[in-house]
Structures are given as C-alpha cells and as structure tokens.
C-alpha cells in the first residue's frame, strides 16, 4: 500500500482531446486515428475524444462521462494546430459552463498541438510521401486554414521560415485558405511568376475536409506540381499529444 493508505499508485489523469469537428466524415476518422495511436503509445492512459461542432460526443457530454466513471480531474487538450479563437475563447467558454454545473471535475488545460518542432517533421513526412522532393529547384507553399487572429497566422509564417532553413526549397511562403492573404492559389501563382519552375504545397491541417479540399483545388488550378495531404495520422502528432499531456500534468503537480 502507498503511504496515504491507497491500495497502489493512482491511475493517470484522463486525457480529453477536443477537436474542431467537421461535417466531412474523413475528418473525424483521421482525428480518431491519431488518438488510437496515442492509446497504443500509452496503454494505461484513458484517452477520450470530443468535438466542438458537428460530431458527437460534445465536450460537456464527454466531461459528464468522465465524471460518472469516477474521474476527479482531467487534462483537456485542444487538438488544434494553432492557438486562436477556438482554443482562446470557444473551448474555454464550454469548460466554464461545465464548471458552473458543479466542482465535480478538476480541469487542467493543455497547450494546443502547435506550434511544435515535431509538426515540421510531420509536414516534411507528408511532402516526401507526395513526391515533393523528387526534383530540385522546388518552391514550397505552407497552407493553413487561416484565422482572424493575426498571431495565429504569424505562427504559420514563422513555420514557413523554419522550413526554408531546413531546405531544400528555393523559397517557402505561408498561405491561408480563409481569413487572410495570400490564398494558396495566389501563393502558387506568385511563386511561378517569380520564376520558380516547380511549386509544392503542404496543407498544415490536422485532417482532410473542407479546408484541405480548398487548398488542393486552388493549388492545382494555379499550377502546383505537388499537393501533400493533411497531416492526419502521423507518428509525430501522437508524440506531440503526449508531450502536451505530460506538460499539463507536470504543471498541475507543480501547483498542487
């Protein structure tokens, strides 16, 4: 028995990952696969998935399920690639409503998945799978969904600069499928007009769906030679999830 009389070590604090959600079933399937991989990497961890919109379970339903199962606390991970409205306003509002219903579950809020160096490796993995490295002299567009949050968009710009430093691209620019410029199509056209003979595009997107389809359609129409898939179920994402979870647990212990 442990010093405080427990029968043994306590189970890890459960992890509740919260994704945006999409009407496109490919999106939920891809996100679910990421967290299946997380479960395989950490078999003793109770990993659950909820969505802000379009897909069940919702966040409050998932929290109710944890509480009814006897959990006293939970790490909530925004399964988002940048910190913007959904992680700063939308999800915290849902969690505040849950807290108002009673102090039955202590919530520890994790950082978003990105930015993180492993996500650069995930981008490069998808580009390699798409054949983007097959020819020298290729420029790259890093395309995100885009946000009204200027800081979130600047994260994509910073990632583009980091990718440029990692090579072998002749130039790397950021693009946004909504809310900001340049669009993926305009970014591809501008690179071709500047003399780059070949342009590859990587969608910095968690899962296939509306925005990945928009990035692919615009980029292809503008003359991109290669368009890589959304990140989806890659090993790097699962490792980031566990790093964010472990950091949130460590912070919780530091404050206890």
Automatic annotation (TrEMBL):
KW Ligase (keyword) present: no
Gene Ontology molecular functions: lyase activity; metal ion binding
Classification via InterPro entries: CbiX-like, Sirohydro_Cobaltochel/CbiX
This protein's record includes keyword Transmembrane helix: no
Protein name as annotated: Sirohydrochlorin chelatase
Superkingdom field: Bacteria
Keywords: Lyase, Metal-binding
Organism in which the protein naturally occurs: Nocardiopsis eucommiae
Lineage: Bacteria, Bacillati, Actinomycetota, Actinomycetes, Streptosporangiales
CDD domains: CbiX_SirB_C (cd03414), CbiX_SirB_N (cd03416)
């Amino acid at each position: 028995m442990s010093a405080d009389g427990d029968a043994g070590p306590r189970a890890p604090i459960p992890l509740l990952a919260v994704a945006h959600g999409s009407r496109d079933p490919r999106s939920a399937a891809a996100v679910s696969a990421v967290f299946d991989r997380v479960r395989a990497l950490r078999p003793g961890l109770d990993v659950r998935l909820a969505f802000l919109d379009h897909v069940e379970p919702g966040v409050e339903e998932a929290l109710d399920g944890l509480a009814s199962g006897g959990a006293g606390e939970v790490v909530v991970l925004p399964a988002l690639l940048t910190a913007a409205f959904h992680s700063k306003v939308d999800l915290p509002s849902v969690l505040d409503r849950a807290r108002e219903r009673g102090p039955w579950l202590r919530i520890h809020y994790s950082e978003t998945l990105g930015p993180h160096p492993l996500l650069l490796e995930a981008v490069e993995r998808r580009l390699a799978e798409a054949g983007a490295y097959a020819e020298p002299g290729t420029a790259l567009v890093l395309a995100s969904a885009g946000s009204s949050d200027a800081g979130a968009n600047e994260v994509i710009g910073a990632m583009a600069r980091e990718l440029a430093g990692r090579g072998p691209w002749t130039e790397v620019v950021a693009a946004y499928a909504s809310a900001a410029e340049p669009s993926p199509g305009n970014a591809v056209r501008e690179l071709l007009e500047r003399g780059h003979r070949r342009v590859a595009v990587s969608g910095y997107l968690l899962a296939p769906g509306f925005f990945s389809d928009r990035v692919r359609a615009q980029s292809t129409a503008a003359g991109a030679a290669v368009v890589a898939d959304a990140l989806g179920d890659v090993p790097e994402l699962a490792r980031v999830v566990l790093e964010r979870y472990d950091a949130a647990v460590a912070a919780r212990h530091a404050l206890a």
